[in-house]
Amino acid sequence: MKPTKILVTGATGFIGSRLCELLSLEHRIPYRALVRNFSRAARIARLDAELVAGDMGDIESLARAVEGCDVVFNLAHAEDSTAEKETAQLIEVCARAKVRRVVHMSSMAVHGPSPKPAVLTESTATIERWNEGYSDAKAAAEGLMMAAARRGTLATVALRPTIVYGPYSFFVTPIVQDARRGVVSLIDGGRGVCNAVYVDDVCDAVMAALDRDDVVGSAFLVNGDTRLTWKDFISAFADLVEGEKQVYDHSLDEISAHWASKRPRKRDSITAAVRLAASPAFHAQLATIPPVGQLIRGAKELVSRRITAERKMMLKSRLQGRGGGGAPEPDAPPVKMPNPGRVVREAYRSWIANDLAKAKLGWAPAHSFELGARRTGEWLRFARFV
Amino acid sequence: MITAERRVEVTVLCDLDRDNATLAARESGLDVAITTNLADLAGKVDAAVVCVPHRFHAPVSLQLFEMGIDVLCEKPLAPTVADCVKMDEAARRTGRVLAVALMMRFFPHNRWLVDLIEEGEIGLVREVIVEDGAPLDWPMAGNSYFDRNATGGGVLLDSGVHLLDRVLWLFGDLADLAYEDDSFGGVETNARLSGTLTIGGRAVPARLEFSWSHRLRRSIRVVGERGTLEAFTSSPRTLTLHRPTRRGITEMQVSCADKWDARSHYRAQLTDFIGAVRDRRAPFVTAASATRSLAVIEAAYARRTPMAQPWLAWKGSRS
Predict the structure, then answer these.
(1) CA-angle at A8, arms to B309 and A107, nearest 5°
(2) Contacts of A209 (CB under 8 A, 6+ apart)
(3) How many CB atoms are closer than 10 A to CB A77?
(4) Interchain pair A46, B186: CB under 8 A
(5) What is the rounded CA–CA span in Å between residue A294 and residue A142?
(6) Contact A384 B215 (CB under 8 A)
(7) Which of A76, A254, B8, B88 has an alpha carbon 20 to 30 Å from A282's alpha carbon atom?
């Protein structure tokens, strides 16, 4: 189908911004970009795009945004707790506006953090509640979209992209930033399977999801064709940075022991509360309430009359956590310990098949990893990362 | 800062959005009149600080001048040279002060940079390189910042004007202009301007680059045959001198003021404006001098060429 006008939600995000670029430059289809936070809109503002203020949580702004659009690309990422409500609202306004097709950006995460099959397809992988915020929110939103198609309320197609990379990717820039410090950080030897797909290929899949009517109500895994390990992925971008680098290989045991030791203790909460009570910013806020302000000033005067200046400095320094004079801890690790989210990503063991998307959408990834990495490298050089 | 100034009494806050003005009053601890109508300022204020979107600088300032009110106007003075000239003429005709809030002009290291170059500290000047870039993250309530009709331009006009203004003020006109940016019909987020300055009677190439998408050095760097002098935006109190020595390239910090904090230039700007209003003298940053950078920007936009962005590589773009 040829859209008359498209509404893009999540237009200032990583995939959304790229989709807007391609809609403007390649497809030349009229579209409207829904923007919640204009501070993030600089990239799409350079296009001749229609930017409209709106919020997925505000049904009236959604209804205004969808007016006159016959296709919606829903790339907005909801907070875990609001995903269902926002998706339901979008379905409602789209159905009311007689939108002809909604392409919903779901995620490989709907299959959970560590699926069992060695090769994962739409039919072999399950969607359950994984007790993991992001996966569950994505699964719930996709579920609503697919149910709307089953009911005949709305013609929806869901895409489940894998690890999407490319210019501006937050999977790539930390690798380069580490490499600039002479560090390469791997998890478990980088042996995990990296299901990487170039951002333009995801955008192509979005457009392909418009073409056929028999794909309505279906969800498709969208992955690249190049089989990679995380070591391959990380090395490709770290190698763009010249100079010697030290490889830090974190075992899964070492990482889990580290985060177990960081779990908050009762004492940490008390310390944090005392620091908050002593912080000048907190005092300034409190002081805007006139009687509290008078009380604080009175108490400060009383205390300052009773203690010496040296004692006051010492107390302040201790409360603000500067007692050690700012010297680094001798045992501080040279590289940041991978966070649990990164561990889930990089300890992945399944390869994700893209055959169904190829067969039904008539789509195929146009970028080998080599080509995608080259394009990303061009942007990294432009943006002075390398 | 204005409320802390004893010579100033804030009497009115004016904003089309009353809630915004009310919030500003509350956050500043001000008990003042609030209005949404500019005409209400007549007879109530001597001077106004104009912080509306760029394209309204001229109409708002003109109305204020007619009401006998002096103006400290946010930069850029206006999106077009014609509007700048109109504002300057109106201020002169009505006998009002028009100061432009290009606060970097007050940086202590500006004059030191020129003086050290003139004294031969780095020898003959070979090149001037200006960079200013950081991901844009200003809080925004709406899309006016990105509406070309409202702003007149992107990073070159909005951020670039600060450093371009200083370069022109310190070194004189920029000739042989060439310009490229990354706009595809919207506002540019990356801009590169080049041209020729005349320093010490010699033609010196100058490159200026501005970004809203990524970090750049944020400095004016003057490369000479015997060293490099660099004025970092983050350090108005010092200049950095790089000089080749027997020990390799040596970095030296030149102190240009005893004390200068992150608010000092704003205080200096306000003090200058108050002085101009009280003494009926010209402000430090006049409309005429602020218009020079806008003339360059206008000329740059007129000869814009597209910036290479090879990663964009949409189908057909490489054929």
Answers:
(1) 90
(2) A101, A103, A157, A159, A215, A220, A361
(3) 21
(4) yes
(5) 54
(6) yes
(7) B8
**Domain range spanning residue A372?**
6-248+340-382
Are B312 and A384 a contacting pair at CB < 8 A? no
How far is it, in rounded angstroms, from Cα A22 to Cα A20?
5
| Burial classification of residue A306, based on how many CB atoms lie within 10 Å of its CB (0-12 exposed, 13-18 middle, 19 or more buried) | exposed
Asked if B186 and A38 come within 8 Å (Cβ–Cβ), the reply is: no
A46 vs B contacts (CB less than 8 Å): 154, 182-184, 186-189
Of the candidates A143, A159, A156, the one whose C-alpha atom is nearest the C-alpha of residue A217 is: A156
Q: Is residue A328 part of a domain?
A: no
Token look-up 């399944």 returns A350
Residue A207 sits at φ, ψ, to 5 deg, of -65, -40
Among A30-34, A130-134, A337-341, A358-362, the least confident range:
A130-134
> In terms of Cα–Cα distance, which of A361, A7, A333, A17 is closest to A169?
A17
CB contact under 8 A, A38 and B145: yes
What are the CA-CA distances from residue A53 to residues A185, A317, B140 (Å)? 40, 45, 11
Instruction: Give how far the C-alpha of residue A253 lies from the chain's centroid of Cα atoms, to the nearest Å.
Output: 26
Question: Which of B136, B310, B311 shows the shortest C-beta gap to A39?
Answer: B136
In the beta sheet, which residues pair with residue A156?
A102
Q: Which residues of B touch A (CB under 8 A)?
A: 29, 135-143, 145-146, 154, 182-189, 212-216, 309-317
Type of residue found at A1: M
Per residue in B162-207, pLDDT (tens digit) is 999 999 999 999 999 999 999 999 999 999 999 999 999 999 999 9
User: Do residue A241 and residue A289 come from a single domain?
Assistant: no
- Whether residue A141 lies inside any domain: the answer is yes
Q: Are residues A163 and A293 in the same domain?
A: no
Domain count, chain A: 2
Supply A308's token pair.
């010496």
Residue A189 sits in the same domain as residue A231: yes
Domains detected in chain B? 12-103+266-286 (3.40.50.720), 104-261+296-308 (3.30.360.10)
Identify the CATH number of the domain in which residue A361 sits. Answer: 3.40.50.720
- Of all residues in chain A, the one with the smallest CA distance to B310 is A378
Residue B146: its chain A contacts at CB < 8 A? 38, 41-42, 45, 51
Q: Which residues, other chains included, contact B13 with Cβ-Cβ below 8 Å and sequence gap of 6+? A: B21, B24, B25, B30, B32, B33, B34, B35
| A contacts of B316 (beta carbons < 8 Å) | 26
Same-domain pairing of A374 and A291: no
Amino acid symbol at B164: L
Q: Which residues on B lie below 8 Å from A38 (Cβ)?
A: 140-143, 145-146
Report DSSP state, residue B145.
Answer: G
Residue A275 placed within a domain: no
A223 and A290 together in one domain: no
Please check whether residues A100 and A143 belong to one and the same domain: yes
**pTM for this structure?**
0.87
Q: Are residues A145 and A18 in the same domain?
A: yes
Interval B14-59: pLDDT, tens: 999 999 999 999 998 999 999 999 999 999 999 999 999 899 999 9
A332 in a domain, yes or no?
Answer: no
Q: Say which of B141, B142, B187 has its CB closest to residue A46.
A: B187
CB atoms < 10 A from the CB of B24, how many? 14
A310 and A347 in a common domain: no
Q: What is the pLDDT of residue A323?
A: 38
What is the CA angle A255-A332-A267, rounded to 5?
A: 80
